[in-house]
Design brief:
Helix content: over 70%
Number of helices: 21
Order of helices and strands: HHHHHHHHHHHHHHHHHHHHH
Shape: globular
Strand content: under 5%
Largest sheet: none
Structural class: mainly alpha
């Protein structure tokens, strides 16, 4: 990297901190900190929802899979998310918003105490928070690997640099800072993505490289599903991503909660779905072409995108692309930190510390900021002590994807009227059963070296077990409740004030 590249990267960090400082003035209470007070425009909510699903993992782990296997990574990742979010625009997005508007909910898990019971809420809060801190650690490692590849910066220094900047604006600005930086990062990502796309197009002599490269690549690279990514894996991941990106990944539920109304949240979801179907293609085409530009990197494919960027881009553009990598990771991490802070301060602490229930509004806001700081610090510590080789893909697929289903199924299905009689017994059993299944399979695969436990099996089985337990126990042992019925019925339509506010 040259001087101009470093100026671009430094300028990016300065802008991010500036946004955090500016957003601090908009935060008056924890409703502003966690849900932007329900005042976020639908288009900003949609862009923020889309951006919060990215991280540098795409340019490390997923770029490596695109290099080795080709088209399949778009099919099982981007396509499943785009279709799933489109479905969720009608099923879940409005409901999340109405929980905030009608029930003053500030954390996605807050409603579980009424919908099921407190033990169910606590199990999912603790399990999800533990899962997310490891997931974020993988994001730090991914962006540090890219920084090392582009600029030779040591991995611990890279983790500390990006982590501290993210910590500053997340602690100061809450969800407003997250959304505004998401928008800025959306612009940066667009510039960086098109820069790489057109550089690759120029290398091959024109835009027609999008269909001519496939004849030069191995035949399997054009297969929709190949290698470990089977039809079973695709179907399981489609269900997982549908649950995850419609609120199972809690920070994405926040984006819907922050919109002015349920109708606005629906529009946000449709915008995000469209972006997921179209934009990743611009990012993936250079990755698919990478074996023709930087061949022979199969053994170190995680660095393929880095090497291609160094070979293809002029001074200044490398810094912009690197800033784009930072933007992906910082967008996801800051939003994750915000929602985990909401879960800890709204759902966990009041149950284990009586003092949290008697706090003033100012004290609650101060606690939220302290919790955000500690959560990001813990994730950085895990990243700094991890064995970085293969850590990113292992966490994203073998841990996050495989355990998301058991955590998300009671949370997401509990919002739908068809499951109104499913009660806490089914919810608890579903989550415990699914997570226990994952532990068993993971131990078999990683420690006992049972090669019959495939990637598809370890992702799909916990989800299937959890879903079956939820449905079978829920319908065999219904636990109807007037309070639960009232909660679910209230999510069918916007409050009149919200409708008028959107029209205005």
């Amino acid at each position: 990297m040259g001087t101009l590249d470093w100026i671009v990267v430094a300028g990016y960090f300065v802008v991010m901190v500036g946004i955090g400082l500016w957003s601090r003035g908009r935060i008056k209470n924890i409703a502003d900190f966690f849900t932007a007070g329900g005042k976020m425009p639908w288009w900003l909510s949609g862009i923020s929802h889309h951006m919060s699903g990215y991280s540098a993992v795409m340019f490390v782990a997923f770029a490596a899979e695109a290099y080795r296997l080709g088209l399949t990574v778009y099919i099982w990742w981007s396509l499943t998310i785009g279709l799933g979010v489109g479905i969720g625009a009608f099923l879940w997005a409005p409901a999340w918003n109405r929980l905030r508007a009608k029930h003053d909910v500030k954390s996605p898990l807050e409603y579980l105490a009424i919908r099921y019971n407190v033990p169910t809420q606590q199990l999912m809060a603790w399990a999800g928070a533990g899962l997310k801190v490891v997931d974020i650690a993988a994001k730090w490692v991914a962006v540090a690997l890219l920084l090392k590849g582009f600029a030779g910066v040591d991995i611990p220094v890279g983790i500390a640099l990006v982590g501290v900047v993210t910590m500053v604006y997340s602690v100061l600005g809450g969800l407003w800072a997250d959304a505004l930086t998401d928008f800025g990062q959306f612009i940066i990502q667009g510039l960086a993505g098109f820069a790489m796309f057109f550089a690759v197009a120029s290398h091959f002599g024109g835009i027609d490289f999008m269909w001519t490269i496939w004849d030069k690549l191995p035949e399997s690279h054009s297969d929709p599903l190949t290698g470990p990514y089977t039809l079973t894996f695709f179907m399981a991941l489609f269900l997982i991503k549908t649950l995850e990106y419609n609120g199972g990944m809690w920070n994405l539920a926040q984006r819907y909660m922050a919109a002015p109304s349920g109708f606005a949240a629906k529009r946000s979801a449709l915008l995000s779905a469209a972006l997921w179907l179209v934009w990743p293609l611009i990012l993936f085409f250079p990755m698919w072409a990478a074996p023709l530009i930087v061949p022979g990197m199969e053994a170190n494919a995680e660095q393929a995108y880095v090497e291609m960027g160094k070979a293809m881009l002029p001074a200044g553009m490398v810094g912009l692309v690197l800033a784009g990598f930072f933007s992906h990771t910082m967008a996801m991490v800051s939003s994750d930190a915000n929602v985990i802070t909401a879960v800890i301060t709204r759902d966990i602490l009041p149950r284990i510390w009586k003092g949290a229930r008697a706090m003033t509004a100012d004290a609650q806001l101060k606690l939220a900021r302290i919790t955000t700081f500690l959560f990001i610090g813990l994730s950085m510590t895990i990243a700094l002590t991890a064995d970085t080789k293969g850590f990113v893909l292992k966490v994203v697929i073998a841990l996050v994807a495989a355990t998301m289903g058991p955590i998300a199924i009671p949370l997401m299905l509990g919002l739908l009227p068809w499951f109104r009689k499913v009660g806490p017994t089914a919810a608890l059993t579903s989550t415990i059963g699914g997570l226990s299944t994952w532990v068993f399979l993971y131990v078999e695969q990683q420690f006992l070296k049972d090669f019959a436990v495939s990637q598809a099996l370890i992702v799909s089985t916990p989800l299937l077990v959890s879903l079956v337990l939820y449905l079978v126990i829920g319908f065999a042992k219904p636990e109807p409740s007037a309070e639960r019925d009232a909660l679910i019925d209230s999510l069918k339509s916007d409050a009149p004030d919200d409708v008028e506010a959107v029209k205005a």
